[in-house]
Amino acid sequence: MAYVISEDCVACGSCISVCPVDAISEGSIYKIDPSLCIDCGSCADACPTGVISQAQ
Ligand code: SF4
């Protein structure tokens, strides 16, 4: 399991600095590497648009 960023990401960059394992990469839409994510939820808390959630 990992957190995922939806297509509604506005690429604001708020999540990158809070990730303890540097699992988030930049782009037109940001992405979380599921092999690195430790499911801490910090990025979801930091996201101002609420587009980060735990994968089903
Ligand atoms: Fe990084 Fe935690 Fe978000 Fe996973 S849940 S991408 S470890 S901040």
From TrEMBL:
UniProt cross-references to PROSITE patterns, sorted A to Z: 4FE4S_FER_1 (PS00198), 4FE4S_FER_2 (PS51379)
Keyword Ribonucleoprotein: no
Start and end residues of each 4Fe-4S ferredoxin-type domain: 1-25, 28-56
Cofactors demanded by this protein: [4Fe-4S] cluster
A GO molecular function held by the record: metal ion binding
Keyword field: 4Fe-4S, Electron transport, Iron, Iron-sulfur, Metal-binding, Transport
Annotated function: Ferredoxins are iron-sulfur proteins that transfer electrons in a wide variety of metabolic reactions.
Protein's UniProt name: Ferredoxin
Organism: Candidatus [Bacteroides] periocalifornicus
